[in-house]
Amino acid sequence: MMRELGYYTAYKGKWHLTREIDQPVAGKSVEEMDLGEIPTPRLHEIMEKYGFSDYHGIGDVIGKSKGGYFFDSVTTGQTISWLRNTGRPLNDENKPWFAAVNLVNPHDVMFINTDEHGEQVQWKGPMDKENHTLLPTQPPHNQIYQQSWPDYPLPANRHQPLDEPGRPAAHKEYQNARAVMEGQFPDEDRRWRKLLDYYFNCIRDNDQHLEAILNELDNLQLTQNTIIVFTGRPWGARWLPPDAW
């Protein structure tokens, strides 16, 4: 739509809608490749079909455990480079552009392992023969993920039974499916606290990248004539552990 209106359209970051992006080379997924091995021309070809230029990856590999922590910096760097090499020159030529920047976090909270180190309660390994696991993990060993909010109130409905009369059956089915991939953790406040802390720290990490991009718009003197639209998943509405935030 934006391209039809005359905008130069570019896309950066996570793309979650095309199997071709996940396997741009026959028989080999992006999860098995180093970033330098991912064929950029092939990605360009795929994304052009959706109306976007200048896509350098890396598809949905960044949607796995710690995907935001590992790769949001890559997306941020690509965005800043694009603004310098393409966005600013287009502006100088009075040509409008639209850039979609798709960071992962706070999605990493989906993969939280609420067990303490050495404990195996939530995660005991794959629960099915096909190994449909998403590998829950501990928060990163990084200072930005060490912050805790012990006085922040936990959700009042956290202990509500999934099979309570009147509650949609889909809630329980969702949790059963999620448990196959990430394990099922007991309804304990210490685990809710760990989940909440990780969620907030994922947001703080994300904010660093957003700030870098916004600062670059300022540095390039593009802020005054750029419309910035924030979108995101509707997390925070249901308080179901852990991907339904």
Automatic annotation (TrEMBL):
Residues 2-232 form the Sulfatase N-terminal domain. Gene3D superfamilies: Alkaline Phosphatase, subunit A (3.40.720.10). InterPro entries: Alkaline_phosphatase_core_sf, GAG-degrading_sulfatase, Sulfatase_N. One of its GO terms (molecular function) is glucuronate-2-sulfatase activity. This is Choline-sulfatase. The lineage of its organism: Bacteria, Pseudomonadati, Pseudomonadota, Gammaproteobacteria, Enterobacterales.
